[in-house]
Amino acid sequence: FPGFDDLYCKFSFVYGQDWVPTAGLEEGISQITSKSSVSPTTLVWNFPIDITFKSTNPFGWPQIVLSVYGPDFFGHDVVRGYGAVHVPFVPGRHKRTIAMFVPESTSRLQQLTSWFTGRRPEFTDPKVVAQGEGREVTRVRSQGFVTISFNVMTKDLHKLGYDVGSAEGPQGLHSF
Predict the structure, then answer these.
(1) Which of 60, 138, 150, 164 is the most buried (most CB within 10 A)?
(2) What is the pLDDT of residues 78-129, one digit of tens each?
């Protein structure tokens, strides 16, 4: 997030109707982080997210949606980026880099008004980021990247007829 500091991150999960969270938090918020003098281009949150899902159907595989917020020139909390990525389905440790984006006003007058009022364009429900419907006419611009590390464990997928291999093996979902 070039040019921004003192940011915090909200997360939530989006999943299909056959999926049920059995443990952990479906949404949460991190601490505020600042850039360090050692690495002035990197912000580190280091907050663990622990959640367990169960399902008998891979349709609607869970996605994590991130919303990053920080202060503007007047001290108002404004959105600095949205992004989403599917949780990896292969057991093991995985890193994913999520391209973040922010919605933009469609006219100069709206841009000026939002800058003065501190009310920048944002989604009423950040989960819309993980869905395709209704986003085709949204004007956005790129706003940085977030790298997230996953530690994935699966249980009994083979009993349901799915072979996800291992972290070193094939990276595909195969049905028998």
Answers:
(1) 164
(2) 888 899 999 998 899 999 999 998 887 677 776 677 666 666 767 767 777 7
Taking the C-alpha atoms of residue 69 and residue 111, their distance in angstroms, rounded to an integer, is: 18
The one-character DSSP state at 3 is T
Asked if 21 contacts 48 with a C-beta cutoff of 8 angstroms, the reply is no
The structure tokens listed for 100 are 């973040």
- Closest by CA position to 35, among listed 62, 1, 12, 67: 1
What is the value of pTM for the model shown? Answer: 0.80
Q: In the 8-state DSSP scheme, what is residue 169?
A: S
Q: Which residues of 87-126 are buried (b: 16+ CB within 10 A; e: fewer)?
A: bbbbbbebeeebebbbbeeeeeeeeeebeeeeebbebeeb
